[in-house]
Amino acid sequence: MDSKEKLKKFWKNKKVFITGHTGFKGSWLSIILNSLNSEIHGYSLKPKKNSLYSKSKIEKEISSNTYANINNKIKLKNKIYSCKPEIIFHLAAQPLVLESYKKPFETFNTNINGTLNLLECIREFSFIKSVVIITTDKVYKIDKKNKNYKETDELGGLDPYSSSKVGVEILVNSYIKSYFCNSNLKNRISTARAGNVIGGGDFSDNRLLPDIINSINNGTNLLIRNPGHIRPWQHVLDPLMGYLALAEKQYKNKITVNEHSWNFGPNKNSFKKVIGIVKYVKRLKNFKYTLKKNNKFKEKNILKLNSIKAKNNLKWISKWNLNQSLENTIDWNSGTKNGTSSKNMCERQFLMYINKK
Description:
The protein has a seven-stranded parallel beta sheet with strand order 3-2-1-4-5-6-10, sandwiched between helices. It has 13 helices and twelve strands. It has helices at about 5-10, 25-35, 50-55, 75-85, 95-100, 105-120, 160-180, 210-220, 235-250, 275-285, 310-315, 320-335, 340-355, and strands at about 15-20, 40-45, 65, 85-90, 130-135, 190-195, 195-200, 220-225, 230-235, 260-265, 270-275, 290. The longest helix has 21 residues, at about 160-180. By secondary structure, it is α/β, with parallel strands linked by helices. Helix 6 runs parallel beside helix 7. Strand 1, helix 2 (about 25-35) and strand 2 form a beta-alpha-beta unit.
């Protein structure tokens, strides 16, 4: 049995509910689950025209789409009740640090209250068997030791985005301890923290790889902020496969650890400075850039994740190193420019990924 058939053995015909399914990660997740023959139900804001969701036309393959705000609790509850999902992935969020400085209220409201609405909804339904709530690697309180952060380390957010996701972590932990310890969802709800994801189809503003690709495609000069910042770079398929493994193990009620948060970070060789990423891609595709000396908004200088827990308990590993992740991101862009559909490029790279030994 090949890798895809092994995944299908569990995911085929599973009813899966995805909030934020029109976003970058949500679109990749929808394309993957569609290829595994899951029954997908999506709840999200309307997709942008220049988005992976729109370009891939994955909407046609999804059983039901609801385009609404996660803060509309009544609509969210009705949607969950009508499709009766077995598994929920909660990705709906305001996901950008710089945007959070510009729109702090929207960021806190969407990220914290949106998650609160979801938790309140699932309290009332017994048909749900697994819930994975996506947060971020930026929830950790950074010290001066330059260490790799594990799930039990202290949380702390500086910018509005990070702080809002810390609030989500505290909120989810509170609901697990207060309401779900003696319910059918005991050990079946988790938060997932991933690094800086890259991959084809990310068209977000103020993100390094999309900005680089725009510079390559349009011949414009790229302004690089925070060139010395270190991030745990990883291809989007890495954390997504971690989310799937976690959701499956929760569904089968095989989670035995007490801590309900999970890191899905890359191997240590993928902890690189921003300028290192820029220089590597420049060797693949030429483009012009300028370093920005002073950044108005503060971001964490160094972020490194310890993912031993996921490796030991979920048998999850980061399959593509940084160079492979960057090369596949550039290849995705080149493939779609040369006529291959966005959906086919995602499916092709998904097969490459899962078949890699």
